[in-house]
Amino acid sequence: MAAASSALFSTAVNCPAGVAKAGSLGSSRPKPTSHLLRFRCLQRRSPRIRAAVSVSDPRVADAGRPDDLVASILSKVLQSDGGVSLEREEHKQVAEVAQELQKYCVSEPVKSPLIFGEWDVVYCSNPTSPGGGYRSALGRVFFRTNEMIQGLEAPDTVRNKVSFRALGFIDGEVSLKGKLKALDDRWIQVIFEPPKVKVGEMEFQYGGESEVKLQITYIDENIRLGKGSRGSLFVFRRCQ
């Protein structure tokens, strides 16, 4: 596991102040014909026509789209137990929204200071990936996940934590600490120390080092999207 503010577009349409008033209509000057009056009416209407065309510009109509996409993807995953309760079609919909959001990602997300902070892992397309065996079908029978948190501390520290309740009454957690390394402008690598486990009053460490690679595909003040080296999609929401 592994994090450009969304841009707002606005336009201003400046219309001419108006058309100069016609001169006096004394007997020394001929009165304007109906054709001339119609021409002046068209002159006064034309700014409105230009404004309507500008507002319909697709770049303007698309204003705020990243915010809409963020709201959409969160609405699909927040109550899904990290993706466990979603059907195949729903996973597909999440992937489609993530693909659209990717178009709005900053050019070098790895260098963005927005990656730092604490993030909730609110979704993974492979729900057993974060948390390992504790999130498997069998593991969920004995361990009810309370939260999955990832903290990124400048300049290169990553802390992952899965907290759970074992057998319905014993609190516990699994934690990992790792070092982050940027592989390019979008991909990061994290090498984790052996995991530490705490169940009730017991604490122990087991296993060896592990390594993950993650591509940051979108980031803003609220969410971060990542894709693992095996194709798993992650959605992180910044902790409130």
TrEMBL record:
Its main location: plastid. It is found in: Plastid. Signal peptide: none annotated. Pfam families: PAP_fibrillin (PF04755). Keywords: Plastid, Transit peptide. Residues 72-196, 209-236 form the Plastid lipid-associated protein/fibrillin conserved domain. The keyword Acetylation does not apply. GO terms for cellular component: chloroplast thylakoid membrane. InterPro entries: PAP (IPR039633), PAP/fibrillin_dom (IPR006843). Belongs to the PAP/fibrillin family. PANTHER family: PLASTID-LIPID-ASSOCIATED PROTEIN 4, CHLOROPLASTIC-RELATED. This is Plastid lipid-associated protein/fibrillin conserved domain-containing protein. It comes from Eucalyptus grandis.
